[in-house]
Amino acid sequence: MGRWLLAILIGLVGAGIVHILVLFLVPEVSDHGPWEELAASAPLQVFARVDEDRVAVGGAPFFHAAACRFDLGAGPVRVRAEGRVPFWSMAVFDRFGQNVFGVNDRTAEGGGGVDLLLLTPTQMVELQKAVPEGLERTVYVESAPELGIVVLRAFMPDDTWKGLVDRFLGSASCRPL
Amino acid sequence: MIVFILQVATAFLIAFCGGTFSLLYVLDRNVSPVSVRVGAWSALAADVGGTPYSRARTARRAALPLGPGEGIAFATAADSDGRPLTSDCRYTVAGTVPPNRFWTLEVASDGPAAATAAGPSAITSLDLLRDEENDFAVTISPSPSPGNWVSAPQAPSWRLVLTLYDTSIAASAGVTDVVLPRIVRTDCRG
Q1: Taking the CB of the first residue and of the last residue of chain A, which one, N or C, has fewer CB atoms within 10 A?
Q2: DSSP B170
């Protein structure tokens, strides 16, 4: 009798260990996460329109989105887009889909459109010593994780705006500085 | 000897099954991370938790929802009296919305969008007709209605999603002080 109870007890302790192990393994081995789904449609540092069937960004039918996976390992990445749409917003996620930062066309200073610089805290310190040309109106966004996802969402009140929205999202770029 | 092997096997079985199923239960229980309830509405918040559980959750389904700097979405599957939304009834969504640049109201159903008769599945605050007191009312029903109308799907279960864009409440902790429109069931058929 005692041995059975011992077996059950060991099993329960083991369940706790398995629970924690699998919890930490799931993000590492999953191929359904946002990073993996986006990797199937575009390489790093490239914006691609988000297919709602693969990655749920929401906002349909009024919002269209483009996403770019970035790697700050080689330096800061500049995110730009040309054109005007009635409203745009941008979110930065880490590699596991956790929200890090969010901004929209009103809260982003500069007023000229999408112009953000993603950089790690270390790169920020370097940059503040000498601001390169052309970045005076750029919004600096610190991202401690080097790998992450930028999502640019554009508002399309109705189909008459489709051309502008497509051009806006098509012009989006996330290139190393 | 056999008994000993059985005991060891039992321990392994409890460990493996207990650990995995308890984890799946916790992860799947909050398929849509719900943070705050306001009346009939529940706020859908992007995972800023950063806990191992929220990481594991987003790893299993690819979703990149609105963050605090962009907007906030509220969803409900029931009217303001707590009854589930059904396509046998008509609903009126009316009331006040917190300060925002604009908002959208859409009907969302799981699974493929059933072929509704040609009709809008969503409406924005920019297209809204308002009365003399600047109030609005949106009718949700399967058949067209005068005024602001959003078509209800033929799906057995569906949700209303109200998304506010560029609103101060998205980033603050004071979401519970917010007042959102009421969803009133007007009349049903059958």
Answers
A1: N
A2: G
Is any Cβ of chain B less than 8 angstroms from the Cβ of A11? yes
For residue B49, name the pLDDT band (cuts at 50, 70, 90): low
Is pLDDT of B112 > 60?
A: no
| Window from A35-39, B72-76, B107-111, B152-156 with minimum mean pLDDT | B107-111
Contact A11 B69 (CB under 8 A): no
Burial label for B128, CB within 10 Å (0-12, 13-18, 19+), is middle
- The predicted structure's pLDDT at residue A111: 59
| Burial annotation B13-36 (CB, 10 A radius, 16+ → b, else e) | ebbeebbeeebeeebeeeeebeeb
* ipTM of predicted assembly, 2 dp: 0.81
Q: Do A59 and B104 touch (CB under 8 A)?
A: yes
B112 vs A: CB within 8 A: no
